[in-house]
Design a protein that fits this description.
Length: 133
């Protein structure tokens, strides 16, 4: 085998690995997204009966804007990058708090609860590509 054919094979493996990792990361991102949404909506009451969450607890759903704006997005194939974000204008204020309000984290805890599964999924994707090698 020539050097060029080895280089081509390595490029194909890198591309295939990146695509497989992105697929796995996207699924893992959706797990985090779903977990964060559930933490906001579980037991919450919207409208006139709404009770704000306690500091340190996930926000309680009121209008549905926060949990409805959480999305998983593929940012890049190389390097494989997937993000889970909330587009609500007050999302960061709830997650991290402000000078007037204690944090009501929902994304960081969802990420922590799913960390092992994300790690496993990425490892699985890489192993699949290595075995195809």
């Amino acid at each position: 085998m020539s050097v060029k054919s080895h280089q081509d094979r390595l490029r194909r493996m890198a591309r295939d690995t990146a695509q497989e990792v992105v697929r796995k990361l996207y699924v893992a991102g959706q797990m985090i997204e779903l977990d964060a949404e559930r933490s906001i909506t579980a037991g919450s009451v919207s409208g006139s009966g709404h009770v704000p969450s306690a500091p340190g607890q996930p926000p309680n759903r009121d209008t549905g804007l926060l949990d409805g704006s959480i999305e998983t997005e593929i940012r890049s194939q190389m390097p494989p990058t997937v993000t889970v974000t909330s587009r609500a204008p007050y999302a960061a204020h709830l997650e991290y708090g402000t000078s007037r309000m204690e944090p009501r984290p929902y994304m960081r805890p969802a990420t922590q609860r799913n960390r092992d599964e994300v790690t496993r999924a990425v490892g699985e994707a890489v192993n699949i590509i290595i075995k195809r090698g």
